[in-house]
Design a protein that fits this description.
Chains A, B: One of its GO terms (molecular function) is polyphosphate kinase activity. Chains A, B: Keywords: ATP synthesis, Kinase, Transferase. Chains A, B: It comes from Microvirga makkahensis. The structure is a homodimer. By secondary structure, chain A is of the alpha/beta class. Chain A has a single domain, classed as P-loop containing nucleotide triphosphate hydrolases (Rossmann fold). Helices cover 48% and strands 12% of the residues of chain A. The first copy, chain A, has 11 helices and 5 strands. Chain A is globular and about 70 Å long. At the A-B interface, helix 3, strand 2, helix 8 and helix 9 of A face helix 3, strand 2, helix 8 and helix 9 of B.
């Protein structure tokens, strides 16, 4: 891992037990990167490196990487997937969006559908929202009792530990945008007919709960950034900074995993093809 | 659809009821394309168009495209996914490989796991092998009785008709390679340590059944190329011809589907973002 990678990670990673507050983290922070154009080219290059590393992960076939994206509406979860993982293509990468649970899903515990969607060995799984909704929207909207929600932080930590111990590396990214930036992005969806489909009037209602969501994020970060599955708070007001930061961490993590083309269990000379 | 697209499709599409024989189809056919370099650039451009069309399909959210890839070992199923769909990225595209059914899958009918993996609305699903294995390997290896296999062609047609009537467009591609070409590609896997993991000694055993597989493909093509879900025999000895042909058909099909950004159900002026 390079010094630059190390310092980018150190800046955004939430240390276990850290008393993190989103209000003290600048969503427009771009200090670790140069100017926009060069950073965008560097991100495109990182995306290709991620592709090459994913090839090796796929060939190795024994471990997986789970990338969890959380963030308020318009924070750029889809855009992150497009920019960081587009060069990686669909072979060996799966994306699972988690919306309001269906009736069938509600008939199970909240981790049931999540476990079912976890990436198979050799692949990268990307969660667009995740089990963390159970301590975010469910908390803010009082959809579950405080007692149940209180239990969930530890349950989630135990679940993620289980995944990690069984061969899945986990990276969690909270896309951190300002309330002003959200306003601009929502307005853009209203103004641009091509973006109308992305506008959901319900988002405005969620926006009135902005502060409560920020508080819920803080608790989630404090309770669930663990040594085995760390949270990262990504400055996301600038899309190019967001993409560069996440691409850097994903690439460095895959490099640390260092997947290997498996050695043949046979001797090449043993076969003749007729 | 352009004249060129029409003629490419006409050349490789299997007409319903056509008495097709793979032995009469040239796996090295490249007549419809110019020279290699220009064709490769054109394919890369098509991949970007597919990406743009997929964006609209995703926004529309009401229909799906299912791409089924079949072909003998080394015929290039993974390579097709890489080259035709890499620009499309993982958002809105899922790849499902079908291997030997697990015990749990075998406890259900052979279409059960297939139905479960069908693409959700707004997305492209790619099957790397598919339910057709139930009339290919199971036929050649006598894993199911002739009576059961005989029933399956009609069952598969009915299943696919159901999918089409419920909003999924289906394209089926048989990657057609020669026995000589397979020999070269298997040898390459033995020679190149980076490809060792792709070599499966069992493939050599399948190779000894080459003619029986070709016969099973012929019957599958004759029985299951339907107006609603046509088969295409793709000349696949040359990878660039294979990629160009499939990219052309996928792009033309998505263009015919003509997905639309949904119209807003509200008036933009109705909302103020505070």
């Amino acid at each position: 891992m390079t010094e630059l990678e190390r310092s980018i990670i150190a800046r955004v990673r939430v240390e276990p037990g850290e008393n993190v507050s989103l209000r003290e983290r600048d969503p427009r922070d771009s200090r670790l990167f140069g100017e926009e154009k060069g950073t965008k080219s560097a991100t495109a290059a990182l995306a290709k490196e991620i592709d090459a590393l994913q090839d090796r992960l796929y060939a190795e076939g024994s471990r997986a990487l789970l990338v969890i994206l959380q963030g308020t509406d318009t924070s750029g979860k889809d855009g992150t997937i497009r920019n960081v993982f587009n060069a990686t293509g669909p072979l060996g990468v799966s994306v699972t969006p988690f919306g309001v649970p269906s009736k069938a899903e509600q008939a199970h515990d909240y981790l049931w559908r999540v476990h079912a969607a976890c990436p198979r060995r050799g692949t990268i799984g990307i969660f667009n929202r995740s089990h963390y909704e159970s301590v975010l929207v469910e908390k803010v909207r009082n959809l579950s009792s405080p007692e149940l929600i209180e239990q969930r932080y530890d349950q989630i930590n135990a679940f993620e530990k289980h995944l990690v111990e069984n061969g899945t590396t986990i990276l969690k990214f909270l896309l951190h945008i300002s309330k002003d930036e959200q306003k601009e992005r929502l307005q853009e969806r209203l103004n641009d007919p091509r973006k109308h489909w992305k506008f959901n009037p319900g988002d405005l209602d969620d926006r009135t709960h902005w502060d409560e969501y920020q508080d819920a994020y803080d608790i989630m970060l404090q309770r669930c950034s663990t040594p085995h599955a760390p949270w990262h708070v990504i400055p996301a007001d600038r899309k190019w900074v967001r993409n560069a930061t996440i691409a850097t961490i994903v690439k460095a993590t895959l490099e640390e995993m260092d997947p290997q083309y498996p050695k043949a269990q046979w001797k090449p000379g043993a076969f003749t093809i007729s």
